[in-house]
Amino acid sequence: MSQASLTDDDLFGEAANEMREDVESSLADARDALPDAESIWETDADNVLGALNGLKSALETGDAEEHLRDAKKWYTMGERADAFDDAEDLADEIETLESTIGDIEQAGDQVGDLTQTIPGLRSTLQSADDEDEE
């Protein structure tokens, strides 16, 4: 098909397909950037603080948020332009990834809190043990 024979509808359809592919690609990149399930489950730490620090590192979402942002940006553009025939699957995937990233971030915050609390708690308990020995 030559450039001269492309109609506005043809161009719009092509752009809509490319936009959907961009959304799908960004969603795939976001999923790929999420932590691996085994990395948050397995540990080789020698103590609780080491396990917590390892878990906190494993709970990093990397570039997942940026990829999700790109997907949402192109999805929003496509929706507003009424470019997608059926985009419910994209909306569902965006919602699922938002929720997953939120859960990971919340878990990371909780682990971070424990990482800060445990050393002080250990020190307090050691002091109590020392007092008992005296």
Q: Can you put this structure into words, describing what you see?
A:
The chain is mostly helical and 134 residues long. It has one domain (7-133). It has helices spanning 8-33, 48-58, 64-80, 88-133. The radius of gyration is 24 Å and the shape is rod-shaped. The protein starts with 7 loop residues before the first helix and ends with a helix. 16% of the residues are buried. Keywords: Coiled coil. Pfam families: DUF5790. Residues 17-27 have a biased composition (Basic and acidic residues). Residues 1-27 are annotated as: Disordered. Residues 80-107 form a coiled coil.
Describe this protein with a few key phrases.
134 residues; mainly alpha; 4 helices; 0% strand
Q: What are the low-pLDDT stretches, counting only 5+ consecutive residues below 50? A: none
Q: Count the strands?
A: 0
Count of DSSP helices?
4
The CA-CA distance between the termini, in Å, is: 92 Å
Total separate domains: 1
Radius of gyration: 24 Å
Report helical residue fraction. over 70%
Strand content: under 5%
Largest sheet: none
Mean pLDDT: 92
Structural class, from secondary structure content? mainly alpha
Helix/strand order:
HHHH
Shape: rod-shaped
